[in-house]
Amino acid sequence: MNTKTKDHPELSELFNQDEQRVNWHDETLWWIRQKRDKSAHGIPEWETLREKASQIKNNALSNLADYLVSFEERALANGIIVHWAADAAEHNQIVHGILQKHGISKMVKSKSMLTEECHLNEYLEKQGLEVIDSDLGERIVQLAKEPPSHIVLPCIHKKKEEIGDLFHQHLGVEAGTSDPQILTEAARQHLRETFLTRKAALTGVNFAIAETGEFVVCTNEGNADMGAHLADVHIACMGIEKIIPKRKHLGVFLRLLARSATGQPVTTYSSHFKRPREGQEMHIVLVDNGRTVQMGREDFRASLKCIRCGACMNTCPVYRRSGGHSYSYAISGPIGAILAPNLDREKYADLPFASTLCGSCSNVCPVKIDIHQQLYKWRQVIVQEGYAASSKKMSMKLMNYTLSSPGIYRTAGKAGRLIMKYAPFAVNNQFNPWYKQRDMPEVPKQSFGEWYKKNVKSE
Amino acid sequence: MSRDKILAALRQNQPELAPLPASMPLQQIEILELQAKFKAVAEGIGSTVHLVDEFGAIQPMIAARFSAEKRILSTVKELVSAAVPEFQFDADPHSYADVDVAIFKPELGVAENSALWLTEAQMRIRVLPFITQHIVMVIPLSSLVPDMHTAYQKIAEADYGFGTFIAGPSKTADIEQSLVLGAHGPRSMTIFIYA
């Protein structure tokens, strides 16, 4: 098990040092959340769609083994080569093996959160291979040597001036350029050259269909298609939970995905890959990496229904104010905080606590995952298994002691009010985490109990 | 073997079989309403839509709009002319890298999101709708459907090697959420709907 250096509160604190940036990050994501609302409200049957999507995913998970076998059988018949990977290491080796077999040392890649989860780029680079990410946002964070901070909007944390600097350094753009149109054009030229010269392309998978053995990749930029249709070898990597039973079910999911993600009526491209083109080799890698284990945990199984739209992140008051990098896992925000502890409870023990449990994430989830309830359940598991931070354990004990005795509770309340009134510096200081980025409330003269005794009981 | 281990673990951990829900009901919408909705949505996401009374009106409009472009290809036989040669198949997709305009006739168009369904049969070579600088779609009014459910009912069990829904020009908003058209694929999309 890995031990990490900084947890969510510490990393959020780093992000919060620049207050203007936090406000801007918060407002940008909230704006996207509002676009989602507008788009969802434009579909009168929206709630029915969510319910159908949830039920189709329940069916898919309850019959996943058979659906996978059926998918494999049809994909093979379609001429696709199928691989199975138990974990991230095996996934990376399979991809490497395919490239080695063809003597390919340079690959172009479209967005795939699974390969982020498996740290494929780092692995291949260590083997001396070059990987270029072709989604604009992913390319930007790749040039900055950072992981994506959002699953749909990988560089949402970056200002255009910073992107201009990166493009000046790496793509020869004139210094001081920050116009998104000009920067996008520079990336277009640079990546077009990449697409035209790569023999291998890797894409993610949004949906794979048991009935037909085809898989669907959704992008706005068309980068997955540019890569796949120009390369001799197309490798598609997917988590085993991406299977849906029938092609017609795409009607439900494609209506929900982009509307939930960015408020668009649909992604620009929804590409259905069924057979390799003449002379091309097409591979699909089916990856477990902890998913079968999560399937066995009844309380957390529903997290496997996720279609990676990012709606839960855009709406989360904690994500919006702490940034994706504070989660230290490939998938940030509320859904990431459920998925990460499945892989490593100790390393990610802090993540389920990075939530207000307000339930907004569950309300926007297009497949109705009970996200905030799962976060609450993970907290209990983590505390019971002894992974909670010692400060948290101590304050919980103190709280338990105080709340279980009315006398101590009343005395503590009175003491608290007196301290805040006469010695505010005792609470308004850096040792009190509640004081950070927050003003402490003004203290009432009396407690509710005291008020009640005086005004109601005496009547 | 990982395959067998994964399948065994799944069978061990899978919940009791949950039934599939009933399909979404199919909407019946009057054709002119479909056209109006399609046009509004398409223009909202950056496409240009022309409604024409007859197919014959399309060719001069394409000629006028793209008179400055060098390499124009048509996969639609009826739109081939001296200036617009018919698509010629070349197995090397790289040979299409300098295409400026490509013309297609999609199988259907979806009013709710303005997505147009093209399969290999219409695109001829998979890379073409993505590598061209500008894309032109011509579609009869009768091929419009209300939503994705009807679209998949029409696609049904069709066999294709590759098929794609395309809704508008290639785009990105990765830099501070500013919408920019022409990320990697076509910079513009022109749609002709003819009666």
UniProtKB/TrEMBL annotation, chain A:
GO BP annotation list: lactate metabolic process
Keyword Ion transport belongs to the record: no
Keywords associated with the record: 4Fe-4S, Electron transport, Iron, Iron-sulfur, Metal-binding, Repeat, Transport
GO terms, molecular function: 4 iron, 4 sulfur cluster binding; metal ion binding
Pfam families for this protein: Fer4_8, LUD_dom, LutB_C
Positions of the 4Fe-4S ferredoxin-type domain: 296-326
Domain of life: Bacteria
Protein known as: 4Fe-4S ferredoxin
Source organism per UniProt: Pedobacter lusitanus
TrEMBL record, chain B:
Superkingdom to which the source organism belongs: Bacteria
Coiled-coil regions listed: none
Pfam family, any one: LUD_dom
Domain LUD stretches: 79-193
InterPro entries: FTHF_cligase-like_sf, LUD_dom, NagB/RpiA_transferase-like
PANTHER family recorded: LACTATE UTILIZATION PROTEIN C (PTHR43682)
Protein's recorded name: LUD domain-containing protein
